[in-house]
Design goal:
- The structure holds 2 protein chains of 2 kinds.
- In chain A, 43% of the residues lie in helices and 19% in strands.
- By secondary structure, chain A is of the alpha/beta class.
- Chain A has a 7-stranded mixed sheet, with helices on both faces. Chain A has a 6-stranded mixed sheet with strand order 2-3-1-4-5-6, sandwiched between helices. Chain A has a 3-stranded antiparallel sheet with strand order 12-13-14.
- Chain B is an all-alpha fold.
- A two-stranded antiparallel sheet of chain B has the order 1-2.
- Classes of the chains: A alpha/beta, B mainly alpha.
- At the A-B interface, helix 1, helix 2, strand 8, helix 7 and helix 8 of A face helix 1, helix 4, strand 2, helix 7 and helix 8 of B.
Chain lengths: 407, 288
C-alpha cells in the first residue's frame, strides 16, 4: 500500500481538530462593549448568537438596544453600557457570565431563550448578587429553582399549554393528540403539561416522539405521527427545530391527516422562515404578536420597524420589555444596589406591550397573556408580514403556594 | 411499528443517504487526489442553497437553479483553488486546515451579512410539491424527485470516473498524483478542474436539499461532520466507498429514528466506530 501525504489516522485526527475549531469559531460573536467605563452601568446580554437559535440572539439584542435607546441611553444619570456575549450552552454561558460580572462589572443580566442556560445563569446570579432577567420557558425557573435575583417575562410552559390545548379542544373539537418533543428541559416541561391538561380534559395522547436538539431530519418522526392518525399533531419544539419539523410535516402531507399546532412559537422570525404556504391553517401558541392592540405596542412596533425594517418578533419584544422593566426598576430604586432594585421591581404594575403587567413577588413571574393564533392563507393576508391572526388569549399561572418556589 | 412504516423509512433513509453521497463524493475525490481535507465543503453546500433561493426569488424557476448554481459554485471553487489553495499543496496539512476552515467561517459570515441570520423559506416547486401514497402513508413527491436526480448524478459521476479519459486521470491521481504528473499530464490544471467539479456537486446538493432541510447560514457546518463520517466509513479517497458510506449512514439514521429519534446523530458515529474496529481503512479504503 502506497504511503501518501496523509493517512486515514491523520484524516480522522484532522477532522476532529477541525471540528473542534469550527465549534470554537461558532462562539466568536461581536463584542459590543469591552467593559463598563468609569461611571457607567454595565448590562450583560447573554444570548445565543450562534448555532440553531442564533436568530433569537439577534432579535433579543435588537429589542434590548431599542429599550436602551428609548430610555435615553442613561439611567440615574450614568451611561448604559451593553456587553453582549454568546450563550449556546450552560457551561459556556456560566463562564461568560462570570467573566462579565468579574471583569466588566455587570450586575444585571438578560439571559437567552434556552431553559438550561437560564437555569444555570439564574443559579449563578443568586450566589453572586446579580439580577437575571430570563426569556426561557421551563416552569422551574420561577418554580422549584426560583430565587430572589431572577425575574422572568415569558409565560412558562404551564400557562402556554393551558391556553393552547384547551382552545384546540374547544375550537377544533380535537380528541386525540400526537406530540413531537425536543429532548431537553423545555420540551419535557411542555410535554408534562400537555399530559396533565389532556388528563384533566379526558382526551387522549396517541403518542409522542422525541428528537435531538438541532435535528435536521424529521421524516421518521412525521411518518410515525401520520401513522398514529391523531386529530392534532402538537409541536413542542422551538426555533430552527420548529421550522424544520413543521416544513417537513407539511411536505409529507401531514396536514391531510391531522391539524398541526406549534405550542410555543418564536413568532414572526419562525413565520418568515416557514412562509405562508407552510403556515396556512397551522395553529400557533405565542407569547407576543405585533398586532396586539395596546397603545404602547403600537408605538414600539412602529419604532422597531423604523429602526430595523421588520415587524417586532416575540423574542425582541421580550428583550425590549424586560430591559425596560429592569431600567425602570433601577430608576425607581434610585440606586444600582441589587436589593433595592429587586424591591422596586416586585409587585409593581406597569403599562406594557401586552397591556397591564406585573412581576409578582412570590416567584418573580410576570403576569401576562399567552396567545393562540391561526396561520392565514395567502388570500387572508393583508400585508406580506401578516402571517397569523389572533384567535384568543388567556392568563394561566399556578397559584403562589403551588409553584414550589421558595425565595 | 408496521412493515409499511419500516418501508417508508427505508425510502426516507435512501433520500437522506443520497444527499450525503453527493456531498461525500466531492469531499472524497478532493481528499483522494489533492490531499486536501476541505473544511469549506459545507460552505459550498450552503452557498448552493442560498444561490438557489436567490435565483428562485428572482425567476420563480427552481430548475434553473439546478443548472446555474452548480456552475456558479464551480467557478467560485476554481477561483479559490487557483488563488489560495494552490499555494498550500506542499505545505504542512495544518495550513490547509486553517485555510479551508477560515474560508468556511468567512463564507458563513458573508452569508449572514447578505441574507441575515434568520433562515429563509424555500418550499419545493409547485410541480413537485404534492405527495404520493405509499401503502397507508403519504410520501413527498419532491423526495422521490431528489432520490431520482441524485441517483442519476451519482451514476453520471461513476461513468465519468470509470469510463472516460479524464476519469482515468483522476483514478490514477488518487493513487499517485506525482506519477501522473511525471507522465506529462498537467496535474495543476486537473486539480483545478477536480476542485471545481467537487464544488459543483456540493452546490447542487445544496440546491436539492434546500426545500427539505431549509436554508440557513449554519446548514453547511451541520452536515459537514456527517459527511466526514461518511467518507471515513466508506474509506478515504474511494468513490464507491462514499456511495456505500452515504447509504449506510442515511439508512442507519432513518431506521434508528423509528426506535429512538434522539439517537439519530449519535448512531452515525457509532456506525463509524464499529466499521473502523472491523475494517480500520473503512469499507473500501485505499489509504493506509
Amino acid at each position: 500500500m502506497k504511503k501518501t501525504l496523509y493517512s486515514r489516522r491523520d484524516f480522522i485526527k484532522t477532522t476532529a481538530i477541525g471540528g473542534l475549531g469550527l465549534a470554537a469559531g461558532l462562539g466568536a460573536v461581536p463584542k459590543v462593549a469591552r467593559g463598563a467605563e468609569k461611571g457607567s452601568i454595565a448590562f450583560l446580554n447573554l444570548q445565543p448568537f450562534s448555532g440553531a437559535y442564533a436568530d433569537t440572539g439577534l432579535d433579543v439584542s435588537r429589542g434590548v438596544r431599542l429599550a436602551i435607546e428609548e430610555f435615553g441611553g442613561k439611567v440615574l444619570g450614568r451611561e448604559i453600557k451593553l456587553v453582549e456575549r454568546d450563550a449556546t450552552n450552560p457551561s459556556d454561558s456560566l463562564r461568560r457570565a462570570k467573566e462579565a460580572v468579574e471583569k466588566e462589572g455587570c450586575k444585571f443580566i438578560q439571559v437567552g431563550t434556552s431553559s438550561a442556560v437560564a437555569l444555570a445563569v439564574s443559579e449563578y446570579g443568586s450566589k453572586n448578587d446579580v439580577i437575571v432577567g430570563c426569556h426561557a420557558g421551563a416552569d422551574s425557573i420561577t418554580g422549584t429553582a426560583c430565587n430572589k435575583f431572577t425575574f422572568r417575562w415569558a409565560v412558562p410552559t404551564y400557562g402556554a399549554i393551558r391556553e393552547v390545548v384547551p382552545r384546540l379542544i374547544k375550537e377544533l373539537k380535537v380528541n386525540t393528540f400526537y406530540t413531537i418533543t425536543p429532548e431537553y428541559v423545555f420540551g419535557e416541561d411542555l410535554l408534562r403539561n400537555t399530559k396533565e391538561v389532556l388528563k384533566e380534559q379526558g382526551k387522549e395522547l396517541a403518542g409522542n416522539s422525541y428528537h435531538a436538539l438541532g435535528e435536521a431530519e424529521y421524516s421518521a418522526i412525521i411518518t410515525k405521527a401520520m401513522g398514529a392518525k391523531a386529530d392534532c399533531v402538537l409541536f413542542l419544539n422551538f426555533g430552527g427545530d420548529t421550522v424544520n419539523s413543521v416544513k417537513q410535516a407539511v411536505n409529507f402531507g401531514l396536514k391531510k391527516v391531522s391539524k398541526l399546532c406549534i405550542a410555543w412559537s418564536g413568532g414572526q422570525t419562525e413565520f418568515i422562515a416557514m412562509g405562508t404556504k407552510i403556515l396556512e391553517d397551522v395553529w400557533v401558541g405565542i407569547q407576543y404578536h405585533h398586532a396586539i392592540d395596546t397603545p404602547m405596542n403600537k408605538r414600539v412596533v412602529g419604532d422597531y420597524y423604523k429602526k430595523y425594517g421588520v415587524m417586532m418578533p416575540y423574542v425582541a419584544a421580550s428583550g425590549y420589555q424586560q430591559m425596560m422593566v429592569m431600567l425602570n426598576a433601577i430608576k425607581r430604586a434610585g440606586s444600582t444596589d441589587v436589593k433595592k432594585v429587586i424591591a422596586a421591581w416586585e409587585d409593581y404594575e406597569y403599562e406594557a406591550l401586552t397591556g397591564k403587567e406585573v412581576y409578582r413577588k412570590c416567584d418573580h413571574q410576570c403576569i401576562k397573556p399567552y396567545y393562540t393564533c391561526r396561520g392565514k392563507t395567502e388570500a387572508e393576508k393583508k400585508a406580506p408580514d401578516d402571517f397569523v391572526g389572533i384567535i384568543g388569549y388567556s392568563k394561566n399561572f399556578l397559584a403562589c403556594d403551588k409553584t414550589g418556589c421558595k425565595m | 411499528m408496521t412493515l409499511n412504516l419500516v418501508l417508508v423509512q427505508i425510502v426516507n433513509g435512501l433520500v437522506l443517504g443520497m444527499i450525503y453521497v453527493l456531498l461525500a463524493m466531492g469531499l472524497s475525490i478532493v481528499w483522494g487526489m489533492m490531499n486536501i481535507i476541505n473544511f469549506s465543503h459545507g460552505l459550498f453546500f450552503a452557498l448552493g442553497a442560498y444561490l438557489a433561493y436567490t435565483l428562485f426569488s428572482v425567476t420563480g424557476n427552481f430548475f434553473m437553479g439546478m443548472i446555474f448554481v452548480p456552475l456558479g459554485t464551480a467557478v467560485i471553487g476554481m477561483f479559490l483553488e487557483l488563488t489560495l489553495l494552490k499555494r498550500l499543496y506542499r505545505l504542512n496539512i495544518l495550513y490547509q486546515i486553517l485555510m479551508t476552515f477560515g474560508l468556511a467561517l468567512i463564507g458563513r459570515e458573508l452569508i449572514i451579512i447578505l441574507y441575515g441570520p434568520v433562515g429563509k423559506s424555500f418550499v419545493p416547486p409547485d410541480i413537485l410539491s404534492g405527495t404520493i401514497t405509499l401503502g397507508t402513508f403519504f410520501f413527498p413527491t419532491y423526495r422521490i424527485f431528489l432520490l431520482f436526480v441524485s441517483i442519476c448524478i451519482t451514476l453520471g459521476m461513476w461513468l465519468f470516473i470509470e469510463k472516460t479519459k479524464y476519469g482515468s486521470v483522476i483514478r490514477a491521481g488518487t493513487e499517485d498524483s506525482e506519477m501522473v504528473s511525471a507522465l506529462g499530464i498537467n496535474i495543476s490544471r486537473v486539480f483545478t478542474l477536480i476542485f471545481g467539479l467537487s464544488m459543483a456537486i456540493a452546490g447542487l446538493s445544496g440546491v436539492l436539499a434546500a426545500p427539505i432541510r431549509g436554508v440557513e447560514p449554519m446548514m453547511g457546518e451541520a452536515i459537514l461532520g456527517i459527511c466526514f463520517a461518511v467518507v471515513i466509513i466508506g474509506g478515504m479517497g474511494s468513490f464507491m466507498g462514499a456511495i456505500i458510506g452515504g447509504v449506510i449512514v442515511g439508512l442507519s439514521q432513518s431506521l434508528v429514528t423509528l426506535i429512538m429519534p434522539s439517537a439519530s446523530i449519535i448512531v452515525i458515529f457509532l456506525v463509524m466506530a464499529l466499521i473502523l474496529l472491523l475494517k480500520p481503512r473503512g469499507l473500501l479504503g485505499i489509504r493506509d
